[in-house]
From TrEMBL:
One of its GO terms (molecular function) is FMN binding. It comes from Chishuiella changwenlii. This is Flavin reductase. InterPro entries: Flavin_Rdtase-like_dom, Split_barrel_FMN-bd. Belongs to the flavoredoxin family.
Length: 291
């Protein structure tokens, strides 16, 4: 595959990198200055970085125009607390409106029509409409340079999380199918976490997988199995026994004319469909079955 290379600090690079590192969750940060004035602003250079203690990191970049700092960073340097309000589809347009560079002292909660509610541990208010609100104490701020577009890494420890009650099941878990979260892409594009876009991948830490290198050569070289398919097959710890494969074959013989599946190419097409459905065990039975 051919590639084309680009150097940093060019317009093309700055555009491409935001497409490459995406989707990015949105940190909708509420802060206050030393006088208690509230600011609310979104940042997509953001993620969860640790669990013990729970740490989020987000970065209000210096303004590209003149290298000046944003109100969020200024506020945090004056009062080292914030609330990270997670953005769902219901408030995505209001979140965008809050990103406008209003003059200092303007309350973005009011401009964006969002409801400010008191936090329990920190002083900045929460966004009532947000499905998750993370009260945070800032542990450190790391400024990279004073140049336009430079990062200012705000390392924030989560001291309390608030979750919209209707999202919690009887075990106090949430389902990604119910969240309707959004994330930032490049340019003006966003993505939406809808049921059709959600899928599962088995965690390899649950087993010590065989690895693609240990798959049969005819499987690795198959025209019908993708790299994802091979990854699924290589993630099993042990293969089915001969007895298990024979039992599976006997059950199939009661329903199918297996002679139709004698060509390896035909079986690989069946295997690809089974892997699409997440049925790795049956896929291996078809691969190991002698017809």
């Amino acid at each position: 595959m051919l590639t084309k290379s680009f150097e940093p600090n060019t317009k093309t690079f700055n555009n491409l990198i935001k497409h490459a590192v995406s989707p990015r969750p949105i940190c909708f940060a509420s802060t206050i200055d030393k006088d208690g004035n509230v600011n609310l602003s979104p940042f997509s250079f953001f993620n969860l970085m640790g669990q013990n203690p729970p740490i989020c990191v987000f970065s209000p970049l210096r303004k590209m125009r003149d290298g000046s700092t944003k109100h969020t960073l200024d506020n945090i340097l004056e009062h080292s607390e914030c609330v990270i309000n997670i953005v769902d589809y219901n408030i995505v347009q209001q979140q965008s409106l809050a990103s406008v560079e209003y003059p200092k002292g303007v309350n973005e909660f009011e401009k964006a029509g969002l409801t400010a509610i008191p936090s329990e541990i920190v002083k900045p208010p929460r966004v009532a409409e947000s499905p998750f609100q993370l009260e945070c104490k800032v542990r450190d701020v790391i400024s990279i340079t004073n140049e336009p577009g430079a990062a200012n890494l705000i390392i924030a420890e989560i001291v309390r999380i608030h979750v919209r009650e209707e999202l919690l099941d009887e075990n106090e878990n949430v389902s990604p199918y119910d969240l309707d979260l959004v994330a930032r892409l490049g340019d003006d594009f966003y993505s939406r976490l809808i049921p059709e876009s959600i899928f599962e991948v088995a965690k390899p830490t649950r087993t010590i997988g065989l690895g693609i290198d240990n798959l049969p050569t005819e499987v690795k070289n198959s025209k019908f199995l993708t790299g994802n398919n091979l990854g699924q097959l290589g993630n099993v710890e042990t293969l089915p026994t001969d007895e298990m494969v024979e039992k599976f074959k006997h059950q199939l013989e009661e329903r199918l004319d297996l002679e139709k599946f004698k060509p390896i190419e035909v079986r690989h097409q069946v295997v690809a469909k089974l892997l699409e459905q997440g049925d790795v065990n049956s896929a291996w039975f078809w691969l190991l079955m002698k017809i």
